[in-house]
């Protein structure tokens, strides 16, 4: 995959017969094997992969290929995938093989993508560093002593290492944006409800949303364009997006429209775009190196014609307690199905059904998952529901209103950091189980509001200047095309997205 920097380059090579889909898939498999020490993959099955690649070559031979036909990708291990294990990086589902595909998996397969394997993540998507996986931590390709971010750490690491050009991830409180930032790649969380959640192992149902990770904004657009669309199998899926039918091509049409507008502005392509800069995102707690890199990126947008507008998101700090009440509450409900009775891990030594269930859950779930289940059960219990859960939902609405006040009246997009610091070292926060929670301060509010947001690389920090920094761009509901076009414009004038990790 080191030969190609974009999906368009892969498409050109496949269509010109410079390389076949089988050769491309084998190249990815070889690289995944060579870089197995990164622990980005939880399962690789060459037989399944090469069968898909042969089918892609047959499609190309008929001249019926699409933009993604033959493209090697990989799926976060929370998307059920027929023929592959789907473990959610948990002992609870260690040997589970789904009889059906998640809608996202199905759509990408129908588009001709070739699945290289299932990717490591935090257990049940609960974590910010990919250290909570029952199958070991994933390593950051830029610096293998650092975390890749989470929960979609394997997804970001596989792209950063050049194993594949695109992966699927999920974002509940920042789990696409944060690992993308820490691994120096691009990732987008679309508006809640625009991508089907059917077949996605649930963490927090009102927050979980699938999104792609890739090297650049145009690749994200191509992947998200296929992934998006109404799904009657998902009760949270939306039929229309601000009056436009939620279907494949919606994102691409919006992207192309916005790009055409930018091109018509000549040397100031972003003229008329107002960028909101929240004071709260640059307050105490942000590392100087992150602040400088993000400010320089914003300055580049201004140089390209955008207008900088100072705004306030006054309830930013409240996003942390609100999220860590709502998300665990929903997790407590969603994970109650894993009881050792119907499916999932079952304890070997027990007497009676009650002990079987308690021991199965104690053995099957890791410490972070158990912690969140306990918190969630507590805040939903009689006597505490009103004081905690209901209050958190009220704050959630107020946070969403803050974003709407800014995006409807003061600016077109909001920009700031994704994380307060560069990637931490693996094991740094072992003594403080909530330290990772605080690092989500810039991403949680967006998830609570259900807005689209993305991360693109904008610099490096750390002692050796080898740990990536990401810029977060937040848009109004259903404005994924605008966010991607803005990011694409930035990437046409910078080279952060072209820099590749020298994996050791």
TrEMBL record:
It catalyses: L-glutamyl-tRNA(Gln) + L-glutamine + ATP + H2O = L-glutaminyl-tRNA(Gln) + L-glutamate + ADP + phosphate + H(+). It is an enzyme of class 6 (ligase). Its EC number is 6.3.5.7. Residues 24-484 form the Amidase domain. GO terms for biological process: translation. One of its GO terms (molecular function) is ATP binding. GO terms for cellular component: glutamyl-tRNA(Gln) amidotransferase complex. Keywords: ATP-binding, Ligase, Nucleotide-binding, Protein biosynthesis, Transferase. The active site is at 76 (charge relay system), 151 (charge relay system), 175 (acyl-ester intermediate). InterPro entries: Amidase, Amidase_CS, Amidase_dom, AS_sf, GatA. Pfam families: Amidase. PROSITE patterns: AMIDASES. Allows the formation of correctly charged Gln-tRNA(Gln) through the transamidation of misacylated Glu-tRNA(Gln) in organisms which lack glutaminyl-tRNA synthetase. The reaction takes place in the presence of glutamine and ATP through an activated gamma-phospho-Glu-tRNA(Gln). Heterotrimer of A, B and C subunits. Belongs to the amidase family. GatA subfamily. This is Glutamyl-tRNA(Gln) amidotransferase subunit A. It comes from Pelistega indica. The lineage of its organism: Bacteria, Pseudomonadati, Pseudomonadota, Betaproteobacteria, Burkholderiales. The gene is gatA.
């Amino acid at each position: 995959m080191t030969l190609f920097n974009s999906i368009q380059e892969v498409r050109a090579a496949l269509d010109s017969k410079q390389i076949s889909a089988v050769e491309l898939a084998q190249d990815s498999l070889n690289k995944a094997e060579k870089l197995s020490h990164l622990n980005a993959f939880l399962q690789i099955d060459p037989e399944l992969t090469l069968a898909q690649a042969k089918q892609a070559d047959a499609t190309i031979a008929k001249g019926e290929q699409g933009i993604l036909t033959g493209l090697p990708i990989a799926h976060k291990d929370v998307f059920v995938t027929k023929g592959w294990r789907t473990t959610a990086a948990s002992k609870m589902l260690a040997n589970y093989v789904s009889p059906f595909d998640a809608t996202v998996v199905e759509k990408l397969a129908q588009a001709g993508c070739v699945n290289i394997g299932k990717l490591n993540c935090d257990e049940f998507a609960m974590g910010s560093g990919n250290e909570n996986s029952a199958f070991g931590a994933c390593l950051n390709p830029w610096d293998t002593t650092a975390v890749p971010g989470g929960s979609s750490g394997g997804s970001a690491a596989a792209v950063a290492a050049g194993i594949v050009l695109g992966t699927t991830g999920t974002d509940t409180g920042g789990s696409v944006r944060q690992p993308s930032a820490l691994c120096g790649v691009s990732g987008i969380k679309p508006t809640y409800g625009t991508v089907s959640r059917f077949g996605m192992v649930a963490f927090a149902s009102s927050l979980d949303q699938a999104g792609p990770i890739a090297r650049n904004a145009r690749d994200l657009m191509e992947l998200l364009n296929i992934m998006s669309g109404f799904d009657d199998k998902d009760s949270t899926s939306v039929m229309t997006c601000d009056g436009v039918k939620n279907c494949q091509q919606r994102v691409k049409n919006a992207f192309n429209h916005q790009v055409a507008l930018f091109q018509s502005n000549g040397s100031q392509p972003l003229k008329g775009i107002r960028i909101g800069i929240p004071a709260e995102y640059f307050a105490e707690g942000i590392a100087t190196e992150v602040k400088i890199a993000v400010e320089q990126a914003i300055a580049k947008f201004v140089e390209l014609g955008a207008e900088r507008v100072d705004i306030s998101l006054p309830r930013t700090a409240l996003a942390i307690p609100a999220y860590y009440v709502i998300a665990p509450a929903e997790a407590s409900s969603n994970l109650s199905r894993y009881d050792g009775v119907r499916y999932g891990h079952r304890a070997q030594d027990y007497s009676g059904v009650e002990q079987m269930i308690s021991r199965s859950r104690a053995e099957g779930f890791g410490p972070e998952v158990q912690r969140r289940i306990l918190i969630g059960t507590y805040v939903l219990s009689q006597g505490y529901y009103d004081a905690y859960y209901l209050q958190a939902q009220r704050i959630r609405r107020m946070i969403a209103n803050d974003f709407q006040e800014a995006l409807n009246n003061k600016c077109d997009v909001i920009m700031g950091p994704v994380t307060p610091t560069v990637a931490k070292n693996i094991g740094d926060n072992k003594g403080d189980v909530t330290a990772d929670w605080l690092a989500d301060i810039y991403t949680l509010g967006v998830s609570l509001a259900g807005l689209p947001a993305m991360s693109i690389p904008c610099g490096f920090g750390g002692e050796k200047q080898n740990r990536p920094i990401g810029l977060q761009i937040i848009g109004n509901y259903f404005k994924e095309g605008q966010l991607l076009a803005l990011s694409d414009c930035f990437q046409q004038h910078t080279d952060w997205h072209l820099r590749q990790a020298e994996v050791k």
